[in-house]
Specification:
This protein is mainly β. The chain is 10% helix and 45% strand. It has a five-stranded mixed β-sheet with strand order 6-10-9-8-7, with no helix packed on it. The chain has a four-stranded antiparallel β-sheet with strand order 1-25-24-23, with no helix packed on it. A four-stranded antiparallel β-sheet has the order 2-3-4-5, with no helix packed on it. A hairpin with a 4-residue loop joins strand 2 and strand 3.
Length: 353
Amino acid sequence: MGKLLILTLLGVGLALIGERFVAFRKRALADREVVSIEPQSCHLVEGLETGSEDIDILPSGLAFISTGLKYPGMQSFAPDEPGHIFLIDLNKKTPKVQVLQINDGFDKASFNPHGISTFIDKDHTVYLYVVNHPHLTSTVEIFKFEEQQHSITHLKTIKHELLQSLNDIVVIGPEQFYVTRDHYFTNFLMQVEMFLGLPWTSVLYYTPTEIKEVAKGFLSANGITISLDKKYIYVADVLAHNLHVLKKHDNGDLTELKVVHLGTLVDNLTVDPDTGDILAGCHPNGMKLLPYNPEDPPGSEVLRIQNVLSQHPRISTVYANNGSVLQGSTVASVYQKKLLVGTIFHKTLYCEL
């Protein structure tokens, strides 16, 4: 009787594991084929060879790019090099990138930049907020942009027991921001969460006087941004293939209004400053990210979501590639019909739309 019970329990356990594995492969879009959709005027940006995980473009056309992210288990083409912030001026006829030097007083050797967001104060001073993973922990770093010197000056490191395993950030005021917490840098939780499909990730709201969880129940909260009118926060749930629209309240709380299913692994989000459309950098076949095979690389995909608050938002593909040109896209950002598409560990694409 005892052996029969053990065998029965073992069979149930194996069946559950098998079902979870099938569900995980489905969430990761393991078998999806990518059909190329590429604008005619596109080329890879020279000088960006080790990723461009996040991109934030100022109203002036200056774009900040975080590079060199080291993710546990993820491919890196420069594993022993620290990360950097690059700058590119999209007003130039042929935009070129330059690395922004970090002024003294900051641990540059352990710089591991992830999500970024900019803030411009009333004096037109530009501040750059960066999710950083030094030694696989999480902090938020605040820099001041020194445009004439082509550098950034480190002002402050924000640490808190809740600010762990962060992903992306959007700044809404001086030292006021939302961040997504995805558990990726807490390896065991991440692995359990991804395999079982548990909604354990969340959005946090930070001010110098308080920090609180304001949205939860995501399989893997990833990209985050804000609408042009500052009334709504958009959050990507990468494993659920969803875009969440949340109403922002004066106290920082968020109320979910709707969920838009995109049918792909949604990474970082940006907003077109001319139209208010949402641009999503996506992974069309996520199983190819881990492990990385250069003979069968992960593809890239960019979606545009129009009229997201309407009953029937319009979703269109701006760019798609099977990995032959661009691998592992994370973000797409636009300025005056000039598009930058970034990646986790690969290159950066520039297109004229």
